[in-house]
Design brief:
This protein is mostly beta strands. It is built from one helix and 18 strands. β13 and β14 form a beta hairpin.
Length: about 290
């Protein structure tokens, strides 16, 4: 699923860490949505104190290492991330992801787990995904920075947790079954991926509450491919994919949390139309349940 889910859960935790001990925890999560998609995931996280100081800006300095895996009806992935917090309001991260997918029809509609986008007006259907699935891998390497703020850090109080998080990322994504300028699908997306560098931006403004509903917020996301090193071509003419989301977090008994998302996206009217025209439309409702095993 998109980074929005990870970032919403990050904001559901205190920005200012206080525990100087090494921590380790395991999270199990299940994601479902109004689209024909679902995902089960497991993640192991280790938090190491690093260059901690006495003041509130540096007392929570740490390095966060996370390894995980997820599986859906059309894909499976493994991932690893390292996040360094040198100061309370800033983090720097490096990560990688490796996965594969498969294709099959569901109620007459193609489920495009992985494959190259093909089009021929003389064939029926005129567009299709080329690949049987599991015939290659998609890998991603990324680096990012996060700026975050919690009003309660300046004015302590249970009802003063107005939180903000801004994330910027540069990534390179590659499908081993695609060559040159070929476009490809992964995890039932719109099929405009290329083996290229991309820029991702997100901003979230939220409010944390000491209630059963412990987080409410709005988030804006932007993703834009900008350069294909295999062809030497700029991809900025495609324009950015943008998503607006409303998020609500719930704290349930037994180390269980729930995140609900309503999302709107400027969807492409056609994967490879010459003008890459888009239209704002409702995207999906998603629910993410997470259980912290230890």
């Amino acid at each position: 699923m998109k980074k929005i889910i990870v970032m919403c859960f990050a904001l559901a935790l205190p920005v200012w860490a206080e525990d100087s001990l090494v921590e380790a925890h395991t999270d199990l999560s299940l994601t479902v949505s109004s689209l024909p998609e679902a995902q089960a995931a497991v993640a192991q996280t280790f938090v190491f104190p690093f260059l901690q100081g006495e003041g509130p800006l540096v007392s929570g300095n740490n390095i966060n290492l996370k390894v995980g895996a997820n599986v859906s009806p059309i894909s499976c992935n493994i991932l690893a991330d390292a996040v360094w917090t040198p100061i309370a309001f800033f983090t720097a991260s490096l990560g990688a992801k490796l996965g594969s997918g498969w294709n099959y029809p569901l109620f007459g509609a193609p489920m495009k787990g992985m494959g190259v986008y093909r089009a021929d007006s003389n064939k029926d259907p005129p567009e299709w995904v080329d690949g049987a699935g599991l015939d290659g891998v998609v890998w991603n390497a990324h680096a990012g920075t996060t700026f975050q703020f919690d009003l309660a850090a300046l004015f302590p109080g249970d009802w003063l947790h107005v939180v903000m998080q801004v994330y910027n990322e540069i990534s390179f994504q590659n499908y081993t079954g695609a060559q040159g300028h070929e476009s490809w699908y992964y995890e039932n997306d719109d099929g405009v991926n290329q083996n290229a560098f991309s820029y991702y931006f997100s901003a979230l403004l939220g409010y944390q509450m000491p209630l059963f509903i412990n987080l409410a917020g709005v988030m804006f996301e932007l993703k834009e491919p900008f350069y294909n090193p295999y062809t030497g071509e700029s991809l900025t003419n495609r324009g950015p994919e943008t998503t607006v989301s409303l998020a609500a977090g719930f704290k349930l008994p037994g180390n269980v949390s729930l995140m609900a998302l309503g999302q709107w996206k400027n969807k492409l009217l056609h994967p490879l139309a010459s003008d890459y025209s888009r239209r704002w439309d409702f995207f999906r409702v998603a629910l993410v349940a997470t259980y912290r095993a230890r």
